[in-house]
Amino acid sequence: MKSRLHAHVGTIRQLEILLAVHDKGSINEAAKALFLTQPTVSIQMKKLTDAIGAPLYNYANRQLVFTDIGLELVKTAVEVLDSFARLDMSLGNIKDFKSGTLRLAVVTTSKYFIPHLLGPFCEQYPNIDIQLKIGNREQTIERLKKGVDDFYVFSHPPVDMDTESIEILRNPLVAIAHEDHPIAKVKNLTLKDLSAEPFLMREKGSGTRYAIEEFLKQHNAKLNVKMTIESNEAIKHSVMSKLGISILSAHTLTYGGQSGLARLPVKELPINSHWFFVWSKSKRPTLLAAKFLAHIETNGRALLQQEMIKTGISYNQTNK
Ligand code: PGA
Question: Fewer Cβ in 10 A, N or C end of the chain?
């Protein structure tokens, strides 16, 4: 069974008084050092003795001599107060953003732009830790339900949860094929033209798949799903290997190369979704999380806009 002794020791302040009595070797001197009256110190020592249930010190020749039990308690008091001193320092560091952890859980497709937000923030606060979890939409929703992270990034945030969010960036989903595929030579495609082609689809639980399925429902259209693949990169490489065509976020194409790939000019595309930063309303934000949110709100869009312009994804207008 766990010890409950600490529950009997009145306060940390009593341990502090005990240490002063031990250091000074006298109740009187301890009282002076602590700017307390002598009876106050005596009463606190009596309370502590009662809590421990044995004398902490005796008097020999009018000298205060600590018992073995008293000395054990002094040792513990030093450790406890040292721990508080360390806590004080850590809290100070957290308040000054010299330490602390920012926890993000983001859907796989957003990993392409998240580092561009984190980079400048970490430059400003170089001693903080970042924990970045990457999963598909379903896995990220599970983390949001458990409330483990400070922020979540989705293009389709769950609607049935008590969250707040800010929109941060466009996320156009575009159709791709191998550049030698006959379909890549056609100028004006429609969704119907894609339906016969072997289609490479993300796995169940993926936000990309969710967006595609919602889009197909709206257009009363169907695709010929031939393979289910759990990663954007693997889909890209499969398209490059002529295994089929696909629809992916334009963000996935701009990083890691797109040689051998052609974007298809499909009339109904792109699927126009957006990235959102999401957080749970019931979770009190840490100081670091609040700082990061301010960073996203003040600098985030501009930073991403610059980055998107560099990589060729238009930020504001429809991206065809
Ligand atoms: P995914 O998420 O990585 O689960 O496909 C992308 C998205 O939400 O758009």
Answer: N
